[in-house]
Amino acid sequence: MNASMLESALLQTHFDVIPFGIYVVDVATYELVFVNKHFRDSLGAVLGRKCHEVLYESDAPCLHCRIPELLTPAGMPNGVTVVYDHYNERDERWAQMQEKTMGWPDGRVVKYSIAVDISELKETQNSLAEAHAELAIRNRELMAQNRILQENIELREHVERIARHDLKAPLSALIGLPQVLLDNYDLPAAAADVVRLIEQAGHSMLEMLNQSLVLFRLETGAYVLTPMAVDLADLARRTAARMATMPVARGRTIRVTLAGRPLAPGERLDSSGDVLLLGPMLQNLVVNGLEASPMGGEVTIDLARDRDRVLVAVTNQGEVPEPIRCRMFAKYVTMGKRGGTGLGAYSAALAARAHGGQIELDAATPGWTTVAVILPSAPGVAP
Questions:
Q1: Which fold has domain 3-117?
Q2: Residue (of 5, 43, 38, 46) closest to 22 by Cα position
Q3: How far from chain centre, in Å, is Cα 74?
Q4: Whole-angstrom Cα distance, residue 241 to residue 239?
Q5: DSSP one-letter string for 145-203
Q6: Which SMART domains match (predicted)?
């Protein structure tokens, strides 16, 4: 027995213990000369039959047959090994095929094929490919939606800028008319009160327009901070006094404290900041507190100094709803308030961050809410 035949005999023994399907076919006749135990259990007695008939139920040699690639021009083994994936329609399974020619103990030239079932792998690959395609489609759809959203945002901001510009001029003229009426006409007391209310409403509208422009500049990073000396105690007193006259404060109390104790008349807390931001920031937080407080409730503005920082804490009865606590300072977040815009806490957060400070929600005490603003005594540029 030559070396090639000895190799074939040893291979036949080894083939039988391999847990994959292995068959050996005569390259000249396509007859099966050996199948290992794995194939015998599934195919039965098939020796001597054509491989294409047994494996693929075909009357002719398979179109994918690799025998020509594995022989020399003289019809002898050329030492080449081919590996390829093949789908068998007979049993609807995928197999990775490894094939090579060699000499068989009886002198014939044969091809052996090792078939590893990779159907599950193919199914996984197909599922991944489908998921990837679906993800690509969803990604394109999301990008298109984002483009539309961005265009809508830009359009809205453009319209808002135009509206602010167009409204300010006639509104400024309207605000001046009440004073003309009061100075030049002898109005009854009741009519004079109405005129003053019109003037006050006009100033409020103008302030809202100005604050809207400030908010836009803060959002776009175009706002230039203008810090100056500011007495936070005086700012808190004036804010509390002004808000106490508003309808939202009806039936509620506003207190101002310094480090937890009542603020004494004339007492100061000197710091530095941009009043154009600090005033509306404090007012927004107090309004939120008043709106959340029950009738008979109390809103406290507490001021404190901690080394190189100042702390402003607005506390009120009532709790922030659990679902929005983690998004408290995001834009348009509101819940349970009629007419709420979701801009109060958001604009307060922008103002705090513009000073290089921070804002925090403390809802740990049941039945109470505290929003704390921490500002540097000498504000820097917002990170």
A1: Beta-Lactamase (3.30.450)
A2: 38
A3: 67
A4: 6
A5: HHHHHHHHHHHHHHHHHHHHHHHHHHHHHHHHHHHHHHHHS---HHHHHHHHHHHHHHH
A6: HATPase_c (SM00387), HisKA (SM00388)
CA distance 301 to 252: 14
What are the residues facing 310 on neighbouring strands? 305, 375
The pLDDT-based confidence of 381 (bands split at 50, 70, 90) is very low
Domains 3-117 and 228-376 share a fold: no
Q: Which two tokens stand for residue 129?
A: 């490919």
Q: Are 113 and 23 spatial neighbours (Cβ–Cβ below 8 Å)?
A: yes
The Cα angle at residue 241 between residues 235 and 247, in degrees rounded to 5: 130
**pLDDT tens-digit series, residues 2-25:** 565 556 566 667 777 777 888 999
pTM of the model: 0.52
Where exactly are the structural domains of the chain?
3-117, 128-220, 228-376
Cα gap 50→63, rounded to integer Å: 15
